[in-house]
């Protein structure tokens, strides 16, 4: 089976429009409840953790926090994200839906592999009306994986994917694609915030500056 596996945040969905306020509300709650006394992270610090697993996120933003505090942070974060999605917050990148539909019509199987939790990932896709385009959705929260490499491996095995592409914006996406024998397309969209280090996509097979540019690489 030929397929394309997509990351969600920073690849299809403009994460910062939901995640930044949700993180800010989470830290405000934790401080009010006396569960966290350190400084609240800056917007730049929050954006630096997009695409990481939840364990990695809290290790970076709340180093030394106890497991109960991290679990409470996870709960509040998801609650705030879902509230914002219900309010219509967050946007897809330009021409995401149109491009995905062209790929689907051309016979490509479309999948999601995200380090996020299932309710958030599905909520984001549902809120933008594109969840029906994907054959299946794999999240680190649902499969309890510690890395994107493992998550993509599970996706490939379960779906019987024999060839295709991994599309994402972080080094974890590049690594997951390369270690699972997929062609890697790195996303660095012109005119939009870029997360992580400048060299995160250095070893991607291709780099695109707009989502629609997938159609110049993938045959339809």
Automatic annotation (TrEMBL):
Keywords: Hydrolase
Keyword Hydrolase among record annotations: yes
Gene Ontology biological-process entries: DNA repair
Gene Ontology terms for molecular function: phosphoglycolate phosphatase activity
InterPro entries in alphabetical order: HAD-like_hydrolase_sf, HAD-like_sf, HAD-SF_hydro_IA, HAD_2, HAD_sf, PGP-like_dom2
Keyword Chloroplast: no
Protein name (record): HAD family hydrolase
Native source organism of the sequence: Paenactinomyces guangxiensis
